[in-house]
Task: inverse folding
């Protein structure tokens, strides 16, 4: 048997994903026989006979004999639907529609969708939506080919310009594309179908291309067998009167009321008996005894409160099947829900599918993952990230995708300097992580610079001794460079005089003073008049390791004058060392 291909709609927010799904359903319902279109849980089935009737002239685009029974559109648009449609060995979606607003072009979630589609190697068609917004466009329901023929030449040109902007953008992502009627080889070029979800223009071409390309290139993967059902949890919902239910896309076999199903939950693997199956159709919610692939169905059964979206659902007819599926799901969870001892980031997300998709993208960028789990961020994970941060500051971060972070958890994270990077867009989450790493590198650089002793030359001002000893307090002028508290000073012969205890200017404490400033410094070790005198020139006594780091890594941070002072300090230190050896 050949099942209908499962189609998911993706794209940026407000580009018309939901409107396009509505337009497909509306077009199919209007032009089909009563009852031909069925709308199941989270999915709409459009039979192949209806597609042929709708498409008419567009049928010549794909010359193939149709064996598929139709198309199954997942009604929940977006990457959540895509990543949750999982089965062993890959993604459940056979094809995708990438919706792009012709006026806005590519946006962050467009790029995110492309990355996910590329990662799962899912074929897709671009629906260039809102063509009615092209200036001068005259809307005409039905085929785009008919509609474009009624437009003025300058309007046709304006649309082409918009489409070629899309061609340019998708090319940057490594894909060739062309308007569907100009494509010479559908295996090498992505088809762009201009559509208007509001009027239904282009919907026939979109449907026939999806059907034709699925039939021509995906027939082998659409084979299904009669037998126990296999599906994927799309959503977990609470329904009044039923309790917690799961919306499942069934991709293989059949499922019956009373069947035992095996699925993954937050608390482990669950076996439970189906109390009921529901299919909402155009005439309303319908309780059914059996559902066959490929279709959507709502299942209610005991123990579904902690069911994991993205988990596979298996019908187990025998005890040995139940044990086998439990083992499979346990093995799969161990692969997806990562827990290791290695240094890496902590990933928390709303579903198994999201965890899997983000993990793939992180690993593709060489990012180590210590833990990947479903659910909200916990205070225990804050402590774990803080410990990781002590070992590697670039890994001590928590990436939170589409999950809540409680206020007290945020406060705990702030107290322990653990960043929680949040987003409900995968692309943005990775972007934020990369931005955070750049910020951390700059902080590390600043911290490294702050810990170094920089070259400075100062002169003791005459008549400006305020205290002779313990501490000696006297006025100086900074002739070059900068000084800070805790810098060790030496005289021109290289004799160490002690460390600067504090710096003051006009009764205000300073953390740094630089060239041109006249300030007072306090030092515990020297006695004024014995170790330090009016008019003395002093230098910072720079440790050898600091000198090397300044020259090798931060030379650009030093002025020519500071480099000359550094050279002078090194010569004084070498001379003193030579005297000591003699």
Result:
């Amino acid at each position: 048997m050949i099942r209908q291909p499962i189609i998911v709609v993706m794209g940026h927010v407000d580009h018309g994903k939901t409107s396009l799904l509505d337009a497909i359903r509306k077009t199919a319902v209007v032009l089909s026989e009563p009852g031909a279109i069925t709308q199941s849980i989270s999915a709409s089935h459009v039979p192949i006979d209806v597609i042929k009737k709708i498409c008419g002239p567009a049928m010549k685009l794909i010359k193939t004999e149709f064996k598929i029974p139709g198309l199954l559109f997942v009604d929940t648009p977006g990457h959540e639907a895509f990543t949750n449609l999982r089965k062993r060995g890959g993604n459940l979606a056979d094809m995708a529609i990438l919706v792009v607003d012709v006026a806005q072009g590519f946006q962050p979630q467009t790029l995110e969708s492309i990355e996910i589609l590329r990662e799962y190697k899912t074929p897709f068609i671009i629906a260039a939506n809102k063509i009615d917004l092209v200036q001068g466009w005259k809307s005409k329901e039905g085929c785009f080919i008919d509609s474009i023929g009624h437009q003025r030449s300058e309007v046709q040109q304006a649309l082409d310009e918009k489409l070629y902007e899309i061609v340019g953008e998708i090319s940057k992502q490594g894909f060739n594309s062309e308007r569907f009627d100009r494509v010479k080889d559908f295996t090498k070029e992505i088809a762009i179908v201009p559509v208007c979800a509001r009027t239904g223009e282009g919907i026939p071409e979109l449907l026939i291309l999806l059907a034709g390309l699925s039939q021509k290139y995906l027939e082998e993967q659409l084979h299904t067998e009669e037998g126990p059902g296999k599906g994927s949890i799309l959503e977990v919902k609470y329904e009044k009167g039923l309790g917690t239910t799961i919306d499942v896309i069934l991709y293989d076999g059949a499922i019956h009321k009373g069947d035992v199903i095996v699925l993954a939950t937050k608390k482990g693997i669950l076996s439970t008996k189906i109390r009921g199956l529901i299919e909402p159709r155009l005439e309303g919610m319908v309780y059914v005894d059996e559902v066959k692939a490929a279709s959507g169905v709502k299942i209610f059964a005991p123990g579904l409160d902690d069911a994991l979206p993205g988990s596979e659902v298996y019908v187990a007819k025998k005890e040995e099947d139940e044990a086998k599926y439990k083992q499979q799901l346990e093995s799969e969870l161990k692969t997806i829900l990562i827990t290791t001892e290695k240094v890496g980031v902590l990933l928390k997300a709303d579903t198994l599918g999201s965890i899997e998709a983000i993990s793939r993208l992180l690993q593709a960028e060489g990012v180590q993952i210590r833990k990947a789990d479903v659910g909200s961020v916990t205070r225990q994970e804050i402590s774990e990230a803080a410990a990781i941060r002590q070992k590697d500051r670039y890994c001590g971060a928590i990436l939170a995708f589409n999950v809540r972070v409680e206020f007290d958890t945020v406060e705990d994270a702030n107290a322990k300097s653990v960043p929680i990077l949040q987003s409900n867009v995968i692309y943005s989450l990775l972007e934020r992580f990369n931005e955070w790493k750049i910020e951390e590198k700059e902080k590390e650089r600043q911290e490294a610079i702050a810990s170094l002793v920089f070259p400075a030359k100062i002169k003791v001002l005459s008549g400006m001794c305020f205290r002779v000893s313990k501490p000696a307090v006297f006025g100086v002028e900074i002739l070059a460079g900068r000084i800070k508290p805790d810098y060790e000073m030496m005289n021109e012969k290289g004799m160490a005089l002690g460390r600067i205890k504090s710096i003051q200017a006009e009764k205000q404490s300073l953390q740094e003073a630089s060239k041109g400033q006249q300030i007072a410094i306090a030092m515990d070790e020297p006695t004024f008049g014995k170790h330090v005198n009016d008019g003395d020139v002093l230098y910072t006594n720079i440790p050898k390791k600091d000198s090397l780091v300044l020259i090798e890594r931060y030379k650009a941070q030093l002025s020519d004058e500071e480099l000359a002072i550094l050279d002078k300090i090194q010569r004084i230190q070498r001379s003193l060392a030579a005297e000591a050896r003699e």
The chain has 14 helices and 32 strands. The first strand starts at residue 6 and ends at 11.
